[in-house]
Task: structure prediction
Amino acid sequence: MPELFTVVPPDEALKRLFSHIRPGVGTQNVKVNLALGRITAEDTFAPADLPAFSRSTMDGYAVKAADTYGASEAIPAYLKVVGEIPMGKPAGLTLRRGQVAKVHTGGMLAEGADAVVMVENTQVVDETTIEVVRPVAPGENVLHVGDDVKKGHLLLSARHLLRPQDIGGLMGLGITEIAVSSRPRVAILSTGDELVPPDGEVTPGKVRDINTYSLSALTLQAGAIPLSFGLVGDSYDELREAAVRGMEQADMLVISAGSSVSTRDLTAQVISSLGKPGVLVHGVSIRPGKPTILASVEGKPAIGLPGNPVSALVIFDLFVVPTIYRLAGCTTPPLRPSVEARLTHNLASVTGREDYVPVKLETNPEGLLAVPIFGESNLISTMMRADGMARVPLDKGGLSAGETVTVRLF
Result:
């Protein structure tokens, strides 16, 4: 087992874990309207052309483009209106030279028309005549059959994270069911003799369990299914029994607490006893969360988080969330939104360590400000008041007030 606090950089730690993970958690078919945030299990091809007919992209008049050549406000083209194309119905009109048909955005193009003149570039002369004051080219303001999507075109690749626009595109092509990866199941164990349930009595020396619920919420947010195994005491046998059940019932094991330097540190021992290769990293060059454990048990990831709520949340975001997407086979995980802001206070650090500090974002005439929220890593209120985490890079020995910092938004 690696030595405790033989620390490695965060990126290298995640690479080690990924190299021992066996992606794939099964597949299932789901209704497309319920598939937001799911991962596609196979390539999806367009079953039809989109649009299925030539249609206008503007309110105006369907025309033969050649009839408008040379038109201007000084010398307009006079064209005959032969009808109006109703929305949602076949055009039912064929244009001859010098004829136009009124059309609305999304309406079908009349037979013989090859362009649409915007209504802004026309003037009504009488009930059957308009003047066109600007010429159009063939295809202008028109979508032809298959211009959006052609039949047989690769619509979505396998292992793609489904977004709102993907849902709309699938529905627009009549695809109402799709194969996706099953949601990874994450077993969550919170350890410590001092913990009681949120509705339990807090006697001297006891604290209410926070991590089970905040980590479960993050698991749901990442598209996985949290499986809570309740509170586990500081006993090797009790922790190992819960960990075995967790590995049997889930695709991933997360244990909070028990990963700090202590005679009662049992997490690494328990994980190492579950299977090969066991602990891969025990110590990451990061604050908060230095004593993080990353492990693999027969292809399943197991991660030990610090017990302090802030540390647990930071490490979960940096390591567990990407691992969830990895398990689901996702090749396009969502990027964590971030902003650049100017620091209002100095942030101390040391070279070779990546720091994350909760910040509140404020705006002033000079731009966006990042106001650090200082506090110990067991203060959940620091996270509740924060808008994101300011990152101090590995190669920086701290940041000074006035410097620009990247803030990972919640």
